[in-house]
Amino acid sequence: MTTTIDKARADIVRFGALLFERHLTDAAGGNISVRVGDKICISPRYSGQKRQWQLQPEDVLLLDEDGNILEGEGQISRESQVHLKLHRHFKEYGTAVIHCHARNVLVFAAANKSMPPILEANLKFGEIPIVAYAPAHTAQLSQNILGAMIGHEARVRKHAAAAIAPWHGLFVMGKDLDAAFDAAERIDTNAYCILMGRQLGMDVEATYQLLESEAARWGKE
Length: 221
Description:
It is a single chain. The chain is α+β, with helices and mostly antiparallel strands. It is built from seven helices and seven strands; from the N terminus they run H-E-E-E-E-H-E-H-H-H-E-E-H-H. It has one domain (2-217): L-fuculose-1-phosphate Aldolase, CATH 3.40.225. The longest helix is centred in the C-terminal third of the chain and has 23 residues, at 177-199. The mean pLDDT is 96.
């Protein structure tokens, strides 16, 4: 168990740096967690603002399933309520949660709009819903995010499910951290293609419908 926890902490450090370098999150926030058995490893508060995602494995906190700190110095992430709820519900399906401020997805968050997949690689996630607004760090926000992902257990088991919090950011529940990171980047790339496609006159809804139709014709999810 200790070796697995050590690996989870090291993975959180590595993926946190990647999210920051690739503009999938920013200094304003974001957080990452990985469940190991009945324990949860999670990035500490101010990982972006005060550490610019330059963490060490020992900086990553170890929690019990109720959010009590078992190991590590510092404060628990303010969005830990979302992480804990997702880990409880999806315990049999996935092990990793990423909350990030992905640059292109933030445009959809600011516009309070859901995002359809317009790339074949994103069909498996379906349309990324925008949840009802609740202020950051609140229990209601955690409930809204969980509510949007309930029913997508098969997606989590296979890869990941996601939801957008209005005026806030992206939340991803993945089967593991590799899958959650992959999903976050695919979703942000999809957002970029929609934003740029509109500059070329793309009809986003028509593109989505055509993609679904062609994928169905070929028997591809």
